């Protein structure tokens, strides 16, 4: 009887996950090229206004890295109609919150307001796009802000340089090879004219997606969008980069010394396909098998049973052009870094030679059903997902249909993809070590 109840509950959950999370949206494009997505949800008096620009670290000049992240900060400085330092005051005094973030592929700005302040959110984002003030005072101010962020999050943070050290070794041609935060020397050397040219090229309506999600009326919102964003002039066409890397055919070995750590780390990293490829979804599932939760293979083996690792994780970092599959481990006690590599290789080899059990597969599917439900649980999350699927994947419908990709992945797919991408001759092995007193940081 108990098993029958569990089966019935599972069936009910799967039915709920497949239907209850349907996200309805309206999608259209203004004459100036601005893509617009509207999602109406009147269950709470809250609205998210957001703009995603198709510009990230990969769009930068190799001698001027850090521009995209710099603009994440710079475009809060003020506009022709919003005074310097007034942006955050306006948002907070009207009951809202806001933020922005940058990746290698895009930059995202958003506000969350009470729904009666929708027009304010649209006006502010249109101001950012149409009337930004880019002057030397603002550049100097934000230069110091970015430097402090780098000191806090990278330079003085334990293991803060790991991803940057991985990327510069995995890529030789593609601009994923530099860190998103970029080089402070490059920012110091840049002229005001270079910053203005970067803005004029990338922060234009035909390189952006506007999403409004929450307690809105579709017709009224369209009218406001037309009023505020329609007059903005279209920019020159933005051509995204298309740089191919030669396959990695021999294991790359590297060493980095971090003055902020006492425990060494081992990193195994593999270059993987674009997040738009089905295999990238399979790699997500492989990560879950290896290290998602205390019952996962690597955690149970190396942390719980054998006491060889303080921490172990496998992460699929999905990006628009390529991805990185990264395994990170901290050894316990006298365990060597080479031992962790061997133990991880043993578990990957099992995935390459044996099908995971049906029980493990069922658990995996339940995990991804849960992720699907949670990803669409807030209006702000829905806004971000709609922009991401439209801009980076080229398919907004994925907000509802992506779960079908995961459902279609078989145990055989997991075995095949592990064999295709996770081989010793296709990877970087990076020893991330403490800095000795007499050593210089590499």
How many β strands by DSSP? 11
Largest sheet: 6 strands, mixed
Number of domains: 2
Cross-sheet strand order for the largest sheet:
1-2-6-3-5-4
Assign the structural class, choosing from mainly alpha, mainly beta, alpha/beta, alpha+beta, or little secondary structure. Answer: alpha+beta
Which bin fits the share of residues in helices? 40-55%
Look at the structure and give the mean pLDDT. Answer: 93
Count helical runs: 16
* CATH C-level category of the largest domain: Alpha Beta
Instruction: Spell out the CATH superfamily of the largest domain.
Output: Metalloenzyme, LuxS/M16 peptidase-like
CATH architecture classification name of the largest domain: 2-Layer Sandwich
Q: Which descriptor suits the 3D outline?
A: globular
CA gyration radius, whole angstroms: 24 Å
Strand content: 15-25%
Distance between the termini: 63 Å
H/E element string? HEEEHHEEHHHHHEHEEHHEEHHHHHE
Low-pLDDT residue intervals, each spanning 5 or more residues: 1-20
CATH topology of the largest domain: Cytochrome Bc1 Complex, Chain A, domain 1
InterPro entries: Metalloenz_LuxS/M16 (IPR011249), Pept_M16_N (IPR011765), Peptidase_M16 (IPR050626), Peptidase_M16_C (IPR007863)
GO molecular function: metal ion binding; metallopeptidase activity
Keywords: Hydrolase, Metalloprotease, Protease, Signal, Zinc
Family: Belongs to the peptidase M16 family.
């Amino acid at each position: 009887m108990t098993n029958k109840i569990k089966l019935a509950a599972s069936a009910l959950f799967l039915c709920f996950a497949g239907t209850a999370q349907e996200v309805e949206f309206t999608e259209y494009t203004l004459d100036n090229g601005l893509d617009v997505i509207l999602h109406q949800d009147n269950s709470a008096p809250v609205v998210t206004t957001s703009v995603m620009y198709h510009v990230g670290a990969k769009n930068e000049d190799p001698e001027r890295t850090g521009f995209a992240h710099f603009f994440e900060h710079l475009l809060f400085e003020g506009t022709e109609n919003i005074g310097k330092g007034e942006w955050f005051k306006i948002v907070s005094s009207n009951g809202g919150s806001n933020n922005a973030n940058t990746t290698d592929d895009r930059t995202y700005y958003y506000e969350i307001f009470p729904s009666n302040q929708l027009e304010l959110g649209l006006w502010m984002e249109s101001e950012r796009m149409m009337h930004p003030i880019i002057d030397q005072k603002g550049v100097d101010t934000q230069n110091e802000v970015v430097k402090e962020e780098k000191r806090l999050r990278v330079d003085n943070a334990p293991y803060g340089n790991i991803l940057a050290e991985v990327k510069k070794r995995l890529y030789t041609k593609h601009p994923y090879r530099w860190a998103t935060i970029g080089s402070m020397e490059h920012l110091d050397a840049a002229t005001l004219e270079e910053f203005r040219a970067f803005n004029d090229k990338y922060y234009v309506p035909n390189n952006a997606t506007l999403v409004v999600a929450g307690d809105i009326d579709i017709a009224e919102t369209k009218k406001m969008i037309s009023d505020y964003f329609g007059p903005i002039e279209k920019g020159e066409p933005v051509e995204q980069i298309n740089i191919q890397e030669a396959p990695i055919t021999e294991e790359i070995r590297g060493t980095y010394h971090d003055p902020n750590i006492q425990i060494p780390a081992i990193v195994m990293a593999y270059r993987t396909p674009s997040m738009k490829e089905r295999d990238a979804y399979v790699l997500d599932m492989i990560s879950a098998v290896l290290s998602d939760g205390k019952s996962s293979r690597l955690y149970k083996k190396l942390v719980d049973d054998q006491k060889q690792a303080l921490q172990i994780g496998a992460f699929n970092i999905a990006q628009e052009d390529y991805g990185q599959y990264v395994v990170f481990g901290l050894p316990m006690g006298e365990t060597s870094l080479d031992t962790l590599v061997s133990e991880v290789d043993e578990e990957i080899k099992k995935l390459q030679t044996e099908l995971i059990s049906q029980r493990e597969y069922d658990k995996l599917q339940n995990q991804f059903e849960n992720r699907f439900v949670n990803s669409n649980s807030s209006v702000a999350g829905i806004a971000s997902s709609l922009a991401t699927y439209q801009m980076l994947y080229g398919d907004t419908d994925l907000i509802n249909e992506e779960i079908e990709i995961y459902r279609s992945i078989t145990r055989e797919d997991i075995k095949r993809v592990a064999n295709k991408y996770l081989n010793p001759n296709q990877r970087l092995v990076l020893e991330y070590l403490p800095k000795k007193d007499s050593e210089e940081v590499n």
